[in-house]
Amino acid sequence: MRIFRRVGRRMRAGRPGAIRQASKPANYRSAVYLPLRPWQVRERRFRHTRFGRRGLDPVEVQEFLDRVADDLSAVYDALGTSRQEAARIKDALRRWQSEHARRANAGER
Asked: Is pLDDT at 16 greater than 50 in this prediction?
């Protein structure tokens, strides 16, 4: 008898009573994956519904897409700022470590 446990997106076979640790899902993406950009959201257009069928209000859809694009833009700006800050902190840490190592080596001599 096989028991299947869901691990990530795949089903894996397991033994009854066996405890299997699920590995962390990887943060890898396909090389062809490109993140959604604000301009892509703003330029997205939906097809009109056929006569006699219900659809969405185009003005409402466009307002929503503009709102999503604005939020994405804010997120990308914050991401850029945090990356710059992280680079600045790493550089400062490297300089401090180099100076600390230089002083420690000078003290040994």
From this structure: no
- Grouping H, G, I as helix, E, B as strand and the rest as coil, residue 60 is helix
| Alpha-carbon gap, residue 10 to 14, rounded angstroms | 13
Q: What percent helix, strand, coil does the chain show, rounded to 5?
A: 50, 10, 40
pLDDT of 26-71, one tens digit each? Answer: 556 667 767 778 888 888 887 777 777 677 778 888 888 888 888 8
CA distance 69 to 40: 8
C-alpha closest to that of 56 among 44, 46, 65, 70: 46
Tell me how far apart the alpha carbons of residues 75 and 77 are, in angstroms, rounded to a whole number: 5
Under a CB-based contact definition with an 8 Å cutoff, are residues 17 and 11 in contact? no
